[in-house]
Amino acid sequence: MDDAVDAPAVPEPIRRRRAVEVFGNRFGTLFNDEVVAPTGVEGQYLRWRWSHSGVVVVPTGPAGYLFVPTYRYPIGDVSLEFPRGGCDADEAPARAAARELREETGYACDASLLRRIGTVHADTGLIETGVHVFTAEVHDAEASTARPEAMESVTDPVWASREEVLTWLQKGSVTCGVTLAALALALAAGSLSDGG
Description:
By secondary structure, this protein is of the alpha+beta class. It folds into two domains: about 15-50, no CATH class; about 55-120 and about 130-190, Nucleoside Triphosphate Pyrophosphohydrolase, CATH 3.90.79. The chain is built from three helices and eleven strands. Strands 5, 6, 7, 8, 9, 10 and 11 form a seven-stranded mixed sheet that branches. Strands 1, 2, 3 and 4 form a four-stranded antiparallel sheet that branches.
């Protein structure tokens, strides 16, 4: 059996005629670019660029996978997520991932022990900046008190077995696109056990 997959056709690009910055702060810049579609039609395209790349870490351990219940202001609800955030200026992605894990869960993991498994784009129709995906094995003995940032609202992290995670997915309990993409990459990389 041939495992090769035919490459899909490559669509024509939408070309940027002019980058138009409409808003910026320390977190990033919002553009409303002047663009030209492959058909020749001119228009505008909204684009967000984070100041620094993002990180997400898939924590695993004997109890399964570690999620952080996080209140997300844009959706006005609690979201079950893997620890994630952004790199600080001049901070390596692995260090940022280890820092986010410690801040949001209280679990410590040396950056050198994190395994980078890929990059995802949170919303390819809007956000240009990628998110580095890591896995980390953590244990209860490594836990301390979580210290989230001032504008974060999180509760104690929760462990879920593989079966519980599958149930959550079936029920639509996990809707964070970054978390879902990170889980998919981790499963594809074989970094998550079949048990849990």
